[in-house]
Amino acid sequence: MGKHEIKNIKKTSEVKKKRKMWVTIFAPEMFNNVEVGESYCSGPEALLGRVVNANMMVLSQDPKRQGTTAALKITQVKGDKVGTEFAGMFVGGAHLKRLVRRETSKIEDSFVVEGKDKSRYEIKPVAVTRKKAHHSTQTDLRNKWREIIASEFATKDAGEVINAIIFGRFQKDLKDSLRKIAHIGILEIKSIRKLK
Q: What are the extents of the domains in the chain?
């Protein structure tokens, strides 16, 4: 038998491997540009548009905020570092579950507000009353906090309002404003999300 000549068994293609690097992620100015963490990627530009989560206790240096998480969107590149902007925040479900007791009412809501700069945010407040609240009282609470929150965003800088929410000042003032309608034990902004 003759020898068979096999041509072009395999063509080797040159694949350029991109070198990966560590990129440092920083929080927005409202959190004093603290370092959030690092990401191993092909380059800082590859991270643009991604959303990273950071524990609020780390960002605010306040242990009381450890049940809250901030969502930060990567928007800018500075060498091997990337900057972020606030995209939202949410309070963990386990944290909220612990707040509810017997003979109380948990009142939740979800609505969209518009800021002075035309930016839009989805807000989800939650309140726990000290006693069972009638449906009419719950409706009054929802209507009132919608009015107050919409007014705050419409008349103040969105960053200022968000900062007050993050550090709990806003919730305290809102709770005081709702005192005439019902006795509220706990009031939280369960989540806030910036819409496109």
A: 21-89, 93-195
Which CATH code of 3.30.479.30, 3.40.50.2300, 3.10.20.30, 3.40.50.300 fits the domain covering 93-195? 3.30.479.30
> What is the 3 state secondary structure string of the chain?
CCCCCCCCCCCCCCCCCCCCEEEEEECCHHHCCCEEEEEEECCHHHHCCCEEEEEHHHHHCCHHHCCEEEEEEEEEEECCEEEEEEEEEEECHHHHHCCCCCCCCEEECCEEEECCCCCEEEEEEEEEECCCCCHHHHHHHHHHHHHHHHHHHHHCCHHHHHHHHHCCHHHHHHHHHCCCCCCEEEEEEEEEEEEC
**pLDDT tens digits, one per residue of 51-77:** 999 998 888 888 888 888 999 999 999
Q: What is the pTM of this model?
A: 0.79
